[in-house]
Write a structure and sequence with these properties.
With 130 residues, the protein is mainly alpha-helical. The chain has one domain. Helix 1 links the parallel strand 1 and strand 2.
Amino acid sequence: MKWVTRCRARVNRIATAWLIRRFIDPEAELIFVPPEEVAGVQREQGAKGFDAPEATYPHKDERGRCSFEALAEEHRPQDAALRAMAPSMRRLTPPIERRKRARTTARRAAVAPHQGLEGSRSKAGAVPPL
């Protein structure tokens, strides 16, 4: 079976891919695509999506479970070790909103030291008015 998720894998997605290959579907073909393509790959290729918008197993389902938790509960309900790991995966995965804020903050921090350089460069060779 094909499984699809967002590219730029983080802890939760790597752990979920491990769960799928190790305990659910040893022959799984894992596909990593941009987030906006997950639903299309599910539809067009019959893949199961995880940890992405509109995925079969979304980043956070209606019960508040991450994809790892949902898959472990559904496919390995008697496996106490996996069930014990599942809440840890949720705690390791920051909410999408917090990740977006972190990226914005990081971009601002990267740009801040360079703000105003264009203006100072253009004025560097200017002749002051008389």
